[in-house]
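User: Sequence recovery, please. Input:
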């Protein structure tokens, strides 16, 4: 397989020329490379590494995982690949009748049967779980990223400080990474109770119950706890000015080498007005915030304090989002977004001139691959790396983001009204031409990416 005459954003720099892929791996970069296999003409096109979306929520088997969603790994990966994402990490957790290790094994089989991207897993922990035993069991199966909720006390998902510290220690022992949702779940539960005691269930009262300062508090507390056991942390959604300012302080201090920050396009593109207008449909954990917070997340991103951007894909229907009596009872999660992850960053960042194409690639592929232990096979166009490449025409048409043009099972998108020229014309995964002219044409399943060691990564 050859991709010829494109503007190739490779790890070593951007150049005009060809990418040669043999046996699923990139074997050469340069000009006028020859190969007997098929060719994709990328004249007047950008050639980028496939995006890596490390934060995707799906149902595992028949289990809803955290809260009901309408896609499993096969469906979410089918949507992801249409937006140029060739690797996703989905969440798994153990259940009363099915151990974490069993769920991981079942999901590996399911993905190797029907996933359309390569895939890895993040293990989600909950109170009362055998933290140490499950970390070791998951690590033996190649899962090296472990999620702790400091929020969601009301839903029974919050780890208290002792459990958090135990998880950090267990994960540090296997040289893994702790993924942290840092909002203070006890304080938000109290604020929620105060709002509801007064009979308040309007979007405004929901927003008041999860202020940004509680995200900053969780980040600070988790970072200090992590010092005790030298655990590596990744805060998975930066949403507020208070926490963005705290991150600047933390990254200038002694913990800088052990902590990193991820955010999502919705914290760069949407404000709490969406929640006021659309009520429970706009509910996301952590909640969308004010314009000033969006500006702070952008400042952090442009200053290189955000490692990468993920989707927090949580595919639901309008009926599911609106199924509860009020916004407090509606499902949390992000929004359906894995397909538009890179197209959104392209539109919001690259097309507006805020970021360059190489920074776009770091934010949507390289840095996530490094943090999640998938580099150097994933996340960059480099000799020896996996042959995961997307082709985006320079004069691609501006495409509006609407539910009827996306490929997931959600019947709504909060990104409606936004548009992008960053949807791929061609997607190559492991040297196979899986998307041609915007149509999925291949049925070889993706591969499970068991991880053995982590790469600390570098800033954006
Ligand atoms: Zn999430």
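Assistant: Recovered sequence (460 residues):
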């Amino acid at each position: 397989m050859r991709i010829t005459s494109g503007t190739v954003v490779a790890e070593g720099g951007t150049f005009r020329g060809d990418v040669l892929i043999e046996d699923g791996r990139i074997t050469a970069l340069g000009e006028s490379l020859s190969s007997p296999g098929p060719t994709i003409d990328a004249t007047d096109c950008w050639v980028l590494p496939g995006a890596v979306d490390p934060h995707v929520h799906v149902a595992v088997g028949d289990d809803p995982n955290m809260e009901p969603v309408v896609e499993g790994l096969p469906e979410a990966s089918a949507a992801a690949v249409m937006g140029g994402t060739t690797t996703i990490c989905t969440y798994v957790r153990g259940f009363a009748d099915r151990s974490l290790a069993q769920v991981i094994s079942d999901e590996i089989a399911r993905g190797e049967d029907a996933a359309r991207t390569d895939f890895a897993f993040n293990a989600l922990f909950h109170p009362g779980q055998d933290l140490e035993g499950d970390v070791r069991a998951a690590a033996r199966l190649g899962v090296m990223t472990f999620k702790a909720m400091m929020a969601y006390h009301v839903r029974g998902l919050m780890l208290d400080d002792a459990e958090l510290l135990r998880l950090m220690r267990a994960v540090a022992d296997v040289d893994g990474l702790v993924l942290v949702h840092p909002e203070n779940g006890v304080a938000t539960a109290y604020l929620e109770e105060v709002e509801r005691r007064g009979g308040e269930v309007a979007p405004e009262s929901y927003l008041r119950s999860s202020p940004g300062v509680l995200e900053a508090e969780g980040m600070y507390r988790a970072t200090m706890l992590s010092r005790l056991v030298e655990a590596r942390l990744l805060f998975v959604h930066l949403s507020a000015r208070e926490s963005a300012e705290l991150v600047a302080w933390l990254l200038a201090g002694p913990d800088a080498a052990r902590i990193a920050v991820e955010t999502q396009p919705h914290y760069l593109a949407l404000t709490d007005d969406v929640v006021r207008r659309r009520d429970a449909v706009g509910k996301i954990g952590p909640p969308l915030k004010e314009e000033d917070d969006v500006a702070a997340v952008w400042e952090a991103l442009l200053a290189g304090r955000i490692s990468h951007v993920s989707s927090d894909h949580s595919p639901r229907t309008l009926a599911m989002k609106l199924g509860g009596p009020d916004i407090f009872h509606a499902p949390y999660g992000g929004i359906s977004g894995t397909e538009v992850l890179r197209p959104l960053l392209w539109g919001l960042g690259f097309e507006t001139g805020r970021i360059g194409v190489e920074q776009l690639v770091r934010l949507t592929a390289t840095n996530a691959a490094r943090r999640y232990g998938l580099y150097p096979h994933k996340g960059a166009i480099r000799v020896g790396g996996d042959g995961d490449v997307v082709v985006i025409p320079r004069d691609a048409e501006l495409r509006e983001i609407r539910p009827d043009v996306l490929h997931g099972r959600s019947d709504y998108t909060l990104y409606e009204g936004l548009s992008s020229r960053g949807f791929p014309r061609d997607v190559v995964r492991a040297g196979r031409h899986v998307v041609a002219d915007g149509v999925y044409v291949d049925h070889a399943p993706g591969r499970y990416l068991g991880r053995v060691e982590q790469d600390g990564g570098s800033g954006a």
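Residues 55, 57, 312, 334 surround zinc ion (CB under 6 Å).
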